[in-house]
Amino acid sequence: MTTVLVEEQLQTVVVEATETTVIVRAPGPAPTGGGTGTVTSVSGSGGTTGLTLTGGPITDSGTLTLGGTLAVASGGTGATDAATARANLTAAASGSNADITALTGITGGIASPDFITLDTGATTTAAVGRLRWDSAQGTALLGEVGGNVESYIGQTLDALVHNAEATTLNKGEVVYLFGASGDKASVKRALNTSDATSAKTFGVVAESIAAGANGLVRCVGVLEGLNLGAFTAGDTLYLGASAGSVTATKPVAPNHMVYVGLVERANAGNGRLYIRVQNGYELDELHDVAITSPAAGAVLTYDATAGLWKDATISGSGGVTVTNGDASIAVSVSGAISSSGFTMSTARLLGRTTASAGAVEQISVGSGLSLSGGTLSATGGGSGTVTSVDVSGGTTGLTTSGGPVTGAGTITLAGTLAVANGGTGATTLTGVLKGNGTSALSAATAGTDFLAPFGSQTQAHVYAAPSGSAGTPSFRALVATDIPTLNQNTTGTAANVTGTVAVANGGTGATDAATARSNLTAQKTITSGTAAPSGGVDGDIYLQYT
Question: Residue 3: its pLDDT value, please?
């Protein structure tokens, strides 16, 4: 008798004879106990595995054939193609693929990847150790310790430091390197009033750092979320005079100049500063300057042998006294300059050999002069014969002819005398003239340079502004509105005025001559002669002469 063991993993069971015993065992521990017997009929079922079994029942001999798709729960993939199988098993294809959308819970390393490509369109948030893309800055961000600061890969430089202050360092304050603590550089607030608090300016605080705690300082690159509302985009910021502050006003000595950065965005709560600290230098910190003992009034002099600028003080001798003071040097001369203090060649004067300002030079005494006992005298002299005479008009505008005269002759002037030399600058002038500064006189233009004379005009017209409004005057007819209202009480026309005009109104107050003279206290007539006149009326005056 033949015994056949059938496992569930087998796909085919072949029964060759009726004397065969078939044992079917499902996955799992082998059954205990058991027995033997004669099989008269064999069939099969896939159960919940997803498999099927055909060809049964077998009552004599035959083949049971497995089919279907083994389910994931039964150790299969539940699929008949690779992509569906990976999806059912939540597995990814090997090599380059788009199946993996997220990886979490990886505790080991990822060895030897060719490259990592970040999703530049994803919306993500910051987290410690998270690397994500920032489209605005065009680079990747890396979440740093503490979770408050992200570093722009390739664009920023941060340092984890220790706060040596007794108070919290606030984001945006400028700090300098103070010392070290807990294997970390320690920092304090920087200010420009001394070399000690400015020369080692380190960066700008990137997050609040409690006293005695560690935190991040940005040394190079962009820092956002700052209070820069007092500034304007593009402002250059320098270290300020108060602890941790910045200023847009460039510091001058004695304060120290430290360049901190540039305002990229001016905003009271979301300002953006590009940080690039550049510390200023003391004079004695320059590599080619060696100042060993600076004193009041000291100056820099160059030592060509050592190739260095060095400090030195000026001293006097030979009657010259030099007084060195704070930012001042005073030189005084007492008495005559001794020969040891100033040496000159024989028969020389002090002055300038050229017509320009500059250092005093020695001037030689020329021929016809003599220098003796401190006195300059003219020597020699004489007479001679003029052999040639010529004349030039210079810049006057005049010209000359007939020169040079070497014996006898006449030099004649011609040309036009310029205004600058008392002339008119012109050869022909007609009408009214006008000056043109230093240029030649020219004829004035009527209507432009002066009011043109009036020609014949229409009868009964006056030269006046427009009636009833301001404007350019012209000749026009007189209208009633041109005559102002007079203080009078008249009616009618001048032809029918009646009555007697009073003296108070410019009249005589009378209709006859005698009364009129009386009203006006006037005399009728004045006569004169050697004899008294006969007749006469009241008011006559007689003048008698002999």
Answer: 44
